[in-house]
Specification:
The complex is a heterotrimer of chains A (237), B (250) and C (250).
Chain A lengths: L3 H15 L5 H4 L2 H13 L2 H33 L1 H14 L8 H8 L3 H25 L3 H9 L4 H38 L4 H11 L3 H24 L5
Chain B lengths: L1 H26 L11 H14 L3 H31 L1 H14 L8 H8 L3 H25 L3 H9 L4 H39 L4 H10 L3 H29 L4
Helix pairs in contact in B: 2-10, 3-4, 3-6, 3-8, 4-6, 5-6, 6-8, 8-9, 8-10, 9-10
Chain C lengths: L1 E10 L2 E11 L4 E5 L6 H9 L6 E6 L2 E2 L7 E4 L3 H4 L6 H11 L7 H11 L15 H14 L4 E5 L7 H17 L3 E6 L2 H7 L2 E7 L6 E8 L8 H6 L1 H11 L4
Parallel strand pairs in C: 3-8, 3-9, 6-7, 7-8
Antiparallel strand pairs in C: 1-2, 1-4, 4-5, 9-10
Chain lengths: 237, 250, 250
Amino acid sequence: MGAAFPLAVLALWELLSRGGVLAEDGFSRPSRFFVAGAKALADGTLLAQTAQTFGAAAQALVIATVAGVTVGAILGLFRPLERAAQLTIDALRPIPSVALIPLSLLIFGFSREMSAAVAAFACFWPILIVTTAAVRGVDPRLIEVGRLLAFPLPKIVLKLALPAALPGILVGIRVAAGIAIVVTVTTEIVTNPRGLGYAMTMAAESLQPDLVWATLLWVGVVGWAANWALEKLPIRR
Amino acid sequence: MTRRLATLIAPVVFLLALLYAWTLAADAKLVNPLWFPGPERSFAKLGEWIATGALWSPLASTVWRMLAGWLAACAVGIALGAAIASSPLARRLLQPSAEFLRPLPASALLPPAILVLGFSNAMIVSVVAFGCVWPVLLAAIHGFGALDARLVEVARLLNFTPWQRAWKFQLPSALPHIFAGMRVSIAIALIVTVASEMLSSQPGIGYLMLVAARAFRSTDIFAGIIVLGALGFLINYGTQRLEGRLLRWR
Amino acid sequence: MLEARGLSVSFGAQPVLRDIDLTVAEHEFVCVVGPSGCGKTTLLRALAGLTPISSGSALFKGRPVIAPQTELAVVFQDYARALLPWRTVAGNVALALEARNIPASDHAARIAPLLAKLGLSGDGDKFPSQLSGGMQQRLQIARCLAQEPEVLLMDEPFGSLDAITRQQLQDEVARLAKEEKRTVLFITHDLEEAIYLGDRVIALARVKGNLAGRIAEIVDIALPRPRQQLATREDPRFLQYRHRLFRHLE
């Protein structure tokens, strides 16, 4: 039932294209871009580009998780510090991630790190906020137990606070994973000559509309599959 | 009294300390000064933009594109969401497609949009609108469908027409959901607008910054980041205030 | 005024009410009492036109009730769900005026006396969430009166209120019904409440084996009005009615 609508759109698209209503140099047509997509899949270029994109997104997620969980745990444990840092967080968080593309380009040049740095900035905030809240929500008794056992602070954090806060933190990381992919693709489209985003920009510049639409469709499928897999992860709040 | 004063001052001190650390790091040339000017030079650049008026035209372009795309997406999303929610058939037919398109990066639409519409304002606004429509649409479908069964009966008992029911019952009950979607959307709008400007070389803050990067003018980049951060902050603050006023009953 | 003739309701294969015959005369206050699950609420909903009837008929002024109509107002037990949370107290009352297409310029003049009658003067600008449970139920009653219905159908309206609030509202509803000359059908599972309020009490019971509700007994209550919480409940006749009807609730 849900497939009927997209199939109808594709059929109409094909018809309008063959009828000359949709310009072929812009809209291509489904029969062409499915062939182009199959070819790109078969010769491995599409898969290589997918690996590049996902590699950068994964790197971003790792950086953001380490930074976000560390800072979040500190802020969650020390309420006065959290209150003091709030203004700074409110000032930095609204910076749109793409605003950092030029800076990242300047620092890292064309590289995986360039995309990863921008995406890590975007992923940092949800992880930070969720971790702060989750650590703050840990039963104070648990921390007291650590104090009574004379654990040093790092041990309290690693052995007691973080495991107790883990379910909440995982929810934040899952949200961040989706953001990582979106931002990585954006950086690739805008400047970075790597991955799926660049594949589309390149195809558009070399006037290969069939390849543009095929890659877009592939990005949709891959993004949807990643999203689906993330939602299926056994993570509960 | 001193405690209240401390809670007021501490956040400012924290922010200033961070700015000072930035200054020290820049002065000590811990990071290549080519990439990393101190805050005073960045803010001086911003002041220069304001003084010469160089800021206003690109800022106006960026804000205009962002708002136009966002508002169009909100109108379409709410209307379409209401229609889809009111028909179980439309819901079964269209909701899976909407769910499929939601995680698609909006910027991925840029290359095909450029092919079809060329490098133009209309292209950017279309892509922004496309990127913004999903959160609003899905929130509206959910919101319009989520009217309490008891209120559906109240509407029946008072013999309201379907239009009155939509206007007096479903829309207000869906509004909190729709607002949440609209707030997600406007953040997307700013990101997509800036990304589009960078890619398509249309005058705006994004383009300004990318040109600066190509010329290794890092103060311009930082001034641009400050402008976009302030814009993001204002959007957040504005939508929060608006939501607080319109959803006073919550 | 309101009538059920051989009225039966089934949900699928499950009979809920069987062969109900009852008549509520104009300006009469009739209470329906019965154990939970005997179909009291279904009877009220069928008479209001909210639940479809399987056989027999519900009649209002001799005409069959097929769909809800504004002459029949329903006061629900779950007042919190039956109010529009996004409208103020005055706005919730205005809803009924809008249903009757009364021009907005007349609303204020009509709402003020209603709010005064139900002890809500001064709360007109509050939202339902700012009111106590008892006040919210008063508001729902005010909205139903604004409908200017001929019949008030009340479905365990005081079931979720504390004892003191319940007694206050019992006396107010009894007074309003007589002052405003409304016909009332009042559903409750509280036998004493039924005897205290009603001109007549209809006891509903479940048919053994079949599980459908039917009328077990109808008793005219010859207690003088206005009734008083202490004196009336200590009246020997009150206790006799209680004894007589009690067995149907087991």
